[in-house]
Design brief:
223 residues, six-stranded parallel sheet, alpha/beta
Length: 223
């Protein structure tokens, strides 16, 4: 028996991202994209009209950003779960989004399988936090405790060759001698997702194989 489709609303100010996500989500089993929004205000209005199960929310958008839109959704459309999908993985962004009511937080280099798992988790009332940003959440919570003064906003780390945080993490694991299967187990993703990350990081670093990628990692201080 087939599952009831997960009704998803995509909110991102970049058209190419909206179209790319819509295409990826359309390939996932039991997922239906019911609408797309170019900013937070439009996302809140469409969610009230379309009643999606999940809103995939970017953080940095004009007029109304993802954090404020998430707060408004919690008030006006409480049945919609919010999963943040963004390039920002710093501790302030993670904490602000979760405090606003987001149930999941993924970076934009997440694969289709990872997004699908996150959708299912939040619908089961579980949190879905990308392992690449979990340490930011821990740091943010630690900094918010006790009598410590508020922490200043942090700048997302910059990696060489335009690597994303997840690609840099995969490269570090490769340099540590892990196989694709071991990396997949460590990151709780499929081997296919790991291979996709590796193909992208090889292209970005100009490496022909894993050995050259490891050399790149050492030259740039990633290990």
């Amino acid at each position: 028996m087939s599952r009831t489709p997960i009704r998803v609303l995509v909110a991102d100010d970049q058209r190419v991202v909206r179209e790319g996500l819509t295409m990826v989500l359309g390939l996932l089993p039991d997922v239906e994209v019911v609408g797309v929004a170019a900013d937070g205000s439009e996302a809140v209005a469409l969610a009230a009209e379309l009643a999606p199960d999940v809103v995939l929310m970017d953080l940095r958008m004009p007029r109304c950003d993802g954090v404020e839109a998430t707060r408004l959704l919690r008030e006006r459309v409480p049945g919609a779960k919010v999963v943040v999908l963004t390039t920002y993985s710093d501790d302030r962004s993670v904490l602000d989004a979760l405090r606003a009511g987001a149930r999941g937080y993924l970076t934009k280099d997440s694969g289709g399988e990872e997004i699908h798992q996150a959708l299912r988790r939040v619908l089961d009332d579980q949190a879905a936090i990308d392992p690449a940003v979990q340490h930011h959440l821990i740091d943010a919570l630690a900094g918010a405790g006790g009598d410590q003064p508020p922490r200043p906003p942090t700048t997302p780390p910059r990696f060489p060759a335009g690597l994303t945080p997840r690609e840099a993490e995969v490269l570090t694991l490769i340099a540590g001698g892990l196989s694709n299967g071991e990396i997949a187990e460590h990151l709780v993703v499929s081997e296919g997702t790991v291979k996709s990350h590796i193909n992208r990081l090889l292209a970005k670093t100009g490496a022909r194989d894993r050995a050259q990628a490891v050399a790149f990692a050492y030259r740039h201080g990633l290990v």
